[in-house]
Write a structure and sequence with these properties.
Blueprint lengths: L1 H88 L11 E4 L4 E3 L7 E6 L5 H5 L1 H8 L5 E7 L9 H8 L9 E3 L4 H5 L7 E5 L5 E6 L4 H10 L2
Parallel strand pairs: 3-4, 4-5
Antiparallel strand pairs: 1-2, 1-5, 3-6, 6-7
């Protein structure tokens, strides 16, 4: 009788454990689809977010390109308008003369822009150039005349065999050409800008600032006056 009762108890415990296991397994199984569904949702949302970010970046790049293009077109239009306005002010054929600011032997500044509205004659020369020296007396006389023309000369100390600035001033002061204004082009940058390849070279600049003529070689006062009369 006791054995029967003990067996019944054991059987009841085993059945109870089996029922609990089934309930746990069922609970686990019932929760697994939710986890799978959440995981699947996360995977499907990630590519969508990446695509949205890529599309946004692409639109941003396109907007920047449109803006750059618009700004570029605006700058080009402004340049064209400025060129057109400058061309309308030209009275002589040619390109605008390169502006420059140089100091003379007395340390006074001269700038091309400061004499705009006047015709300008510029002579590029060197102290070792015999042809240049032969024309200085004529030029001194011309520069001393009462006319509406600015006359200056340009030398480049220490360049292409020229004296130093101090040596040049000491030498030039002994010549007695008081009407000739000598400007010092350190490094020959102005000469290079004007395309000077030989001495002497004359540059004729109109009252509109246009480089009307560049004349290599000697030019006497008569020829200089003739060319200045022809340009505006």
């Amino acid at each position: 009788m006791k054995k029967y009762q003990l067996g019944a108890v054991v059987m009841g415990v085993m059945l109870s454990l089996a029922a609990c296991g089934a309930n746990n397994q069922g609970g686990t199984m019932s929760k697994m689809p939710e986890k799978l569904e959440a995981s699947s949702s996360m995977k499907s949302e990630q590519p969508m977010n990446d695509q949205m970010a890529a599309d946004k970046m692409e639109h941003s790049k396109m907007d920047e390109m449109k803006m750059d293009k618009k700004m570029g077109e605006g700058a080009m239009e402004e340049t064209k308008m400025a060129d057109k306005e400058m061309d309308s002010q030209k009275m002589n054929d040619g390109e605008m003369a390169a502006d420059f600011t140089l100091k003379d032997k007395d340390d006074n500044e001269f700038s091309l822009a400061s004499v705009k509205g006047k015709k300008v004659y510029v002579k590029f020369w060197a102290s070792w150039c015999s042809i240049c020296l032969a024309g200085l007396e004529e030029l001194n006389t011309l520069a001393g005349k009462d006319n509406d023309v600015e006359i200056v000369t340009v030398v480049s100390p220490g360049v292409r065999g020229e004296k130093s600035k101090e040596e040049f001033i000491k030498w030039f002061d002994t010549l007695g050409y008081s009407n000739i204004r000598v400007l010092f082009d350190e490094g020959a940058q102005v000469g290079d800008a004007y395309g000077v390849r030989a001495y002497p070279t004359s540059a004729f600049i109109g009252s509109d600032g246009v480089l009307a003529k560049l004349l290599p070689g000697h030019a006497g006062s008569e020829e200089i006056e003739k060319i200045l009369a022809e340009i505006k």
